[in-house]
From TrEMBL:
Pfam families from the UniProt entry: Amino_oxidase
Protein name per UniProt: Protoporphyrinogen/coproporphyrinogen oxidase
SUPFAM superfamilies found in the cross-reference section: FAD-linked reductases, C-terminal domain, FAD/NAD(P)-binding domain
Domain Amine oxidase: 11-438
Cross-referenced PANTHER family: PROTOPORPHYRINOGEN OXIDASE
Ranges that cross the membrane: none
Amino acid sequence: MVSVVVVGAGVAGLTAARDLVDAGHDVLVLESSPRVGGKLLRTAVAGVTVDVGAEAMLNRRPEGVALARSLGLAVEHPTVASSRIWTRGALRPLPRSLMGVPLDVDQLAASGVLSPEGLERFRSTVPVPVDGDVSVGDLVDARYGAEVTDRLVEPLLGGVYAGDARRLSVRATVPQLVSHVDGAPPPAPTYDAPVFAGLPGGMGQLPERLAEGLQVRTGATVRELVATETGFALTVGPTTAPELVTANAVVLATPAAPTARLLGSVAPVAAAELAGIESASMAVVTFAFDAASVPELAGTDSSGFLVPPVDRRRIKAATFSFAKWVWVRAAGDGLLLLRTSLGRYGEETALQASDEELVAWSLTDLHDAVGVTVAPVDTHVQRWGGGLPQYAVGHLDRVARIRVAVDAVPGLAVCGAAYEGVGIPAVIASAQRAAARIRS
């Protein structure tokens, strides 16, 4: 018997495991896939190792940057290159906004993102009270008009959640928007620190460094969890050769669906609630271009662009990594690395296309947006099936019910992106909370 079993070796599971080891616990981490890291992953494209999962973390929340620095990892902030929005037939400047809700009407007007009718609707708004929880899109529609939702909020929320703005909970995803649309003045920045941060060499280094010194077993699928008189018993491995692992305590750092399956007999109320959390799938296509062959990109002052779904393009965003991160440009040494992302909530069938099709679709959109005509030196397709939980209206109440049900079981904790935030700092905070519960 071990002291604690942590199921899942993504950032959440590895953070919880490390905290518990530091507190003196004997911890075993079980991961079903062949590697650690979850949605943080680095791989080589044209010989250059880059992120093919999450490439940045929020800097204005402390948990991610603090953890990276505690592990001896350097932190780098994006360059000042600005993002664009590809809509209404042109690449346009992205107005200053609160998750897509414009904060400067003059910038908005100059950008041309909205039609004259959409701009007039934005100017003619009145405060909208919010009673309970509503979707982001419904709230913005009522306050500013549907065009703001379609052309600004949707692409920005799509980058974070790959979701549908008219399904996502405003209180769970953009709570500060509630007071803003109710007539409060635009939020002022709390300090002048950069919004985002990354790691030179890639965010994938974070789980790699976290795993060092931990007892981690990959390729170890946990199929069943039951409570015992002394803690828990976990059935691990293939059905043809199951293994029983016992522990005093268990931390489930897995996505909502597998967590729901494992909690079926231990915390059935939590299991039912978790089973109701839907997810979105996406794909990241990474390209390496010879810099000399794409002069239209080599001198760009843009870090990429977002694409509203209303414009009916295949990709939802393009990130010019070589322009966004100093370390990527340096590592490229004559190659320009960039990536596109495809897939939103409800578009799973579109991602059943082949890798070759995803590459071709991306190249078509890159050609139409910025004029790329040459073939890339190398490509890489990374699929993230069910990778992003969807915070539907009522999500915070759902999470509260999950917490009550799980907290009623001694020695059990849950953590990860399904609860209080999908970003890296929020996931780390969730893991730290889970470890504290086991320690108490």
